[in-house]
Each structure stands twice: as C-alpha cells, then as structure tokens.
Amino acid sequence: MSNRRKDHLGASSSEPLPVIIIGNGPSGICLSYLLSGYTPYVRPDAVHPHPLLQRKLSEAPGVSIMDQDLDYLSEGLEGRCQSPVALLFDTLLRPDTDFGGSVESILTWRQQKERAIPHLVLGRNPPGGAWHSIEGSMVTLSQGEWMGLPDLQVKDWMCKKRRGLRNSRATAGDIAHYYRDYVIRKGLSHNFVSSATVTAVEWGTPEPSSPGARDPSPLFQVSGFVAAEDQSQQPFSLRTRNVVLATGTSDSPARLGVPGEGLPFVHHDLSALEAATRAGTVSPSSDPVLIIGAGLSAADAVLYARHYGVPVIHAFRRPVDDPGLVFNQLPKMLYPEYHKVHQMMRERSILSPSPYEGYRSLPEHQLLLLKEDRQAVFRDPQGLQKVFGVALVLLLIGSHPDLSFLPGAGADLAVDPDQPLSAKRNPVDVDPFTYQSIHQEGLYAMGPLAGDNFVRFVQGGALAVASSLLRKEARKPP
Ligand SMILES: Cc1cc2nc3c(=O)[nH]c(=O)nc-3n(C[C@H](O)[C@H](O)[C@H](O)COP(=O)(O)OP(=O)(O)OC[C@H]3O[C@@H](n4cnc5c(N)ncnc54)[C@H](O)[C@@H]3O)c2cc1C
C-alpha cells in the first residue's frame, strides 16, 4: 500500500471525506474515473444515429453530459436493460452496438481537475472486483468490447498487450488485467485501497437543519480492516458524507441447505475445482466431481473439468428442456461451448440409454444429503433414492449480495424489504436518475446491487451517482 493511501486510512482529520465507494469492480472503477474530474462532452462533429437523442443533445452544445438533465436525455430510449441512465450512457459510448454496428462513441473526455471530488475506493481484491475471482481462462459471456470502461477500448488495450479476442469475446483473465491496468493508466491508483474489507457502516439521524447549518446530510462511519501480506489486519475507521455501495453480488454464494453442505470436500465456487485439479486430488482416474446447478457457472465448471479429463456428475432440478434454462436464451452461433454443455446435459442423461463416459447428467434430481465418506444421496424424478461416490462437490446455484456490514444487513433498503435482497428480483431501491437510496440520504447503490447486471450497464449507474454528487458539491456553501 502506498504511503498516500495509508495516510487516507490513518487520517484523523476533522473533515469527513466527501465520498467512500465500497467495492472496486467495474462499477467502483468507473465511478472513480468520473469523480476524478474526467468529464464527458459530445464531440462537436459527432452525430448520434438515434434522431431524437441527437436532437436533444444538440439543444445543449458544449454542456457536459454530467451537467445535463439525465431524465430528459434518456426518455424514450429502449434496450436490454431497465435503467434509463444505463441505456443512455451505453448508447453514447456504443451508439449502434445492438444493431451489430461499430459507430464510435460520440463522447470526448476532458479531465477537469476543478470538478474532481475526493474519494476512496475500498475493495477486498485488486481493482477489477469479481473479475479477479473468475477463472482466468473462462471466456466472457459478453462481447469483449462490452466489457470496456470509458475512453479505453478493450480492443485497443488488447492490441497493445498483443492479445486477441476469441470469437469477439475476451478471457476473464484479460478483463481482470484490463481493469487493473485501467486504474493505473487513468491515474486513479491513489484513490484505491486493495485488500480492504469493510465490516461496518453506521450513520446517525441528520441534525435538523438550523439556519446557518453548513451541511444537514448525515455522516457515515465506515470501518473495517486492511489485510497485510503476512495476513495481519490493520483496522480503519473513516467518516464520510456519502457512501456508494458497489459490492456486486458474487461474495455470498447461495446454499442448498442440505445436511453435509459444510463438509470440507463441498465448495461453492469454481476456484475449488481449479485448486483440486492443480493439487491432483481430482484427476481422470479419481471419483467424479459432482457439479450442481444448471446456470452458466455450473456450465463453466463442466467445461473446466472436461478440459482436464476429470469425470463429472452434473445434477440439476429442472428438466433439461425447460425453456427457462439460460442456454435457451443464448444464440448458438455465439456461444457454441454452452450449447455443447446443454447438448451433453440432454444426451448424456442417466435417463438416456447410453451414458457418455466421463460425463453423466442427472436432470430433475434433488440432492438430499452429503455424507462424510463422500457419498451424495439424491431423490430422482420417480422419488427413488440414488447414491453416488464423489471426489469433490461444487454447488453452483447462484449468489446473493452480502450487505452484512450495514445495519439490518441492508434489508430495509430493498425494493421489497420483506424479501431477501436479490440483483434480479429485489435490488436496492434507488432513484433511477441519481442511484441514491430511496430510504437513506447520502447512501447510493450501483451495479448488480441496483439491478444493473452487466458491465456495459453498470456504467450508467456511475454517471448518475457522479452527476448527483457533483450537484451536491456545487450546492455546498464555501
Ligand atoms: C462467472 C461470471 C461471469 C460473468 N460474465 C459476465 C460477462 O460476460 N459480461 C458482463 O457484463 N458481466 C458478467 N458478469 C457480471 C459482472 O461480473 C458484473 O456485472 C460486474 O462485475 C459488476 O461489477 P461491480 O463492480 O458492481 O461488482 P463486482 O465486480 O462484483 O465487484 C465488487 C467487489 O466488491 C468487493 N466487496 C464486496 N463486499 C465488500 C466489503 N464489505 N468490503 C470490501 N470489498 C467488498 C467484492 O469482493 C468485489 O471484489 C459475470 C459474473 C460472473 C460471476
């Protein structure tokens, strides 16, 4: 950690920081870029292919997008995301990408230091967030270009690194590297503290604003620790006027709740399979790896195990032809590897006459119990019990946001506070044009936490938060 960053954490300054961002994935990085004074303007010669948007943009020539009315600009835009500001920023950055076009971004970026807002980005991993936990050889679901952040195209970065896209997609390893490099290239490193885990965020009720009061907004106390290389932990506690939750949803894997789920050979992420393959505890001659789940993470695990010749039992609750399975939503031409897994799930089912050597699928099977002697007990669709000996179990059935560092684990912040927080079904309830919590002034949420699930779309959240924070700063009395 640089001394400058140590200073930030150790500082006992009486002035609170304007902003702390928790989470250093693409959301946190993009927001840090915008808060560092990088300001988007429409290029004077650019014409957006969307006529209505072009007309609106031409009404305010020379005015930064961050200073314009995001509600007005985004009105009427449609696309693959619910958030109007996410659609707006995406269409400014990639004007016709959904129509297969490659019109360049109509934005130009100017760094205006006087607009910068001091902030810190705290994250457990190196900058890049979840991308440092995804197996490096996995290929992104999205096109490589859609993984990029403002003003540094993935293809240009790849070219400089002498790397290439695969069938227009990138590897997770390259993308993790790109994000880390982005922070360095854009001069954002001094804002980032890696290996930092936030364990508590607390706030008080704002003082009733009295005449002459400087700032009626609440003060947040953000506490946690920074892990050193020798595993020692250095605690920190910081005060700030605004907190941005950008913690993603990958840290708390969903659990099945079956007996034996806590046994040492049972894991909830793919990295356990990589470690076991490296250590030789699973191999072509070992008992099979049991992979539970019918989503893309489970499919990635199947592909990984197959690559190393490790035998696989693949179990899932749904019928293999269930239209809700994710495979049915992916075009075959673009995702041949996932369609291969789907085909194997169908053709190599235990219910079909000739199970394929080294892979067997168990559709509509419910895992009942895992035993210490590495036996997995299932109930089949007919209600009969089946037992399999396995070397390792991977339960890859999704993940939940983990806001355990907030009062009440953030449950009150969800759209439906009576239901568990969920990126897809019950995200944090935010204003669509500022991403500030509807329930707590000064608290923002972005990325999957706010329902924006793809890197392409988390960037609109950053634009909304940055523009809201800039307005707040402008309102502050000198
Ligand atoms: C296997 C997989 C494949 C994916 N493929 C694609 C794809 O192809 N295209 C695409 O667009 N999206 C893809 N995604 C989704 C993508 O990862 C997310 O949209 C994106 O990373 C969200 O960015 P984020 O910055 O909001 O959160 P994240 O990238 O999740 O980063 C948040 C970071 O915050 C850290 N954090 C959490 N809590 C704390 C705490 N208390 N203290 C400190 N740090 C904390 C987390 O450890 C994490 O490192 C994929 C996700 C997974 C899991």
UniProtKB/TrEMBL annotation:
BP GO terms, sorted: cell differentiation; negative regulation of cell growth
Keyword Oxidoreductase in annotation: yes
Locations listed in the record: Midbody
Keywords carried by this UniProt record: Differentiation, FAD, Flavoprotein, Growth regulation, Monooxygenase, NADP, Oxidoreductase, Phosphoprotein
SUPFAM superfamilies linked to this entry: FAD/NAD(P)-binding domain
UniProt signal peptide: none
DNA-binding recorded as keyword: no
Chief subcellular location: other
Family: Belongs to the OKL38 family.
Function: Monooxygenase catalytic activity. Involved in regulation of cytokinesis; promotes RHOA activity, probably acting locally at the midbody in late cytokinesis. Monooxygenase activity is involved in stabilizing transient structures between daughter cells, termed intercellular bridges, before abscission. Regulates differentiation and proliferation through the regulation of cell death.
Protein name, entry field: Oxidative stress-induced growth inhibitor 1
